[in-house]
Amino acid sequence: xxPEGLRFIEITLPTIAENLxxxxxxxxxxxxxxxxxxxxxxxxxxxxxxxxxxxxxxxDLNLETCxxxxxxxxxxxxxxxxxxxxxxxLNLTVILPVDADPAFRAVDTAQITVLGQLAESLQQLVPxxxxxxxxxxxxxxxxxxxxxxxxxxxxxxxxxSILYNFPLDQISxxxxxxxxxxxxxxxxxxxxxxxxxxLSRPExxxxxxxxWLGSQPPQPPVEIPLAGATRIRLxxxxxxxxVYRF
Length: 246
Known about the structure:
The chain is of the alpha+beta class. The chain has one domain: Bira Bifunctional Protein, Domain 2 (BirA Bifunctional Protein, domain 2, 2-Layer Sandwich). The protein has helices at about 15-30, 55-60, 65-70, 105-120, 170-175, 190-195, 200-215, 225-235, 240-245, and strands at about 5-10, 40, 50, 70-75, 85, 90-95, 130, 135-140, 140-150, 155-165. Strands 1-2-6-10-9-8-7 form a 7-stranded mixed beta sheet, with helices on both faces. Helix 1 (about 15-30) packs across helix 8 (about 225-235). The N and C termini lie far apart (about 35 Å).
């Protein structure tokens, strides 16, 4: 399913909080009726640990190690588990209208549908790619991408982070084993559970664009709500009260 008029944006802002805030601002813009469906890609220049909206620092992080290494700790507005991102992780944001597909009306089917569309495209280069759990992408039984979701009344957002050239030892250095695990993980530690997708960045980018844009003609540039993103960062996502609330 490719929403008509889907706009593609590849933009990375200087900080993690700014990037997370821009995603939320674009969702708010769409919900207000002033924005189209969007596919956005960004890749941070620094390593960061990003919690889901309700993630608990005491459960998920090796906080002292993060602080000693000057690793950014952030919290997004979507749900899902804690992730470590940085150079070598391509972050994907899809913002879609709930009424575009019957599968989008429920949390679980929306997430699996979005990830399934991406998996189908990736399979053209890496046939072993599959969707597992409630929204992971895997090679065999090893995870290279997780996803999260935030829903408003008429629009929803899917976040996915894709490991393609990331130093995987950083995941066990900065995060603890999650208390909630999909059955297919079988209690494996990070080092034996996660894997990089064996594609170059251009190959990965091409698969993502093919999955969501297909052969649609070029679309007009989308208005990027930088003022809204700044407000969200200053009032919410960039504040210690938000990041350390749980």
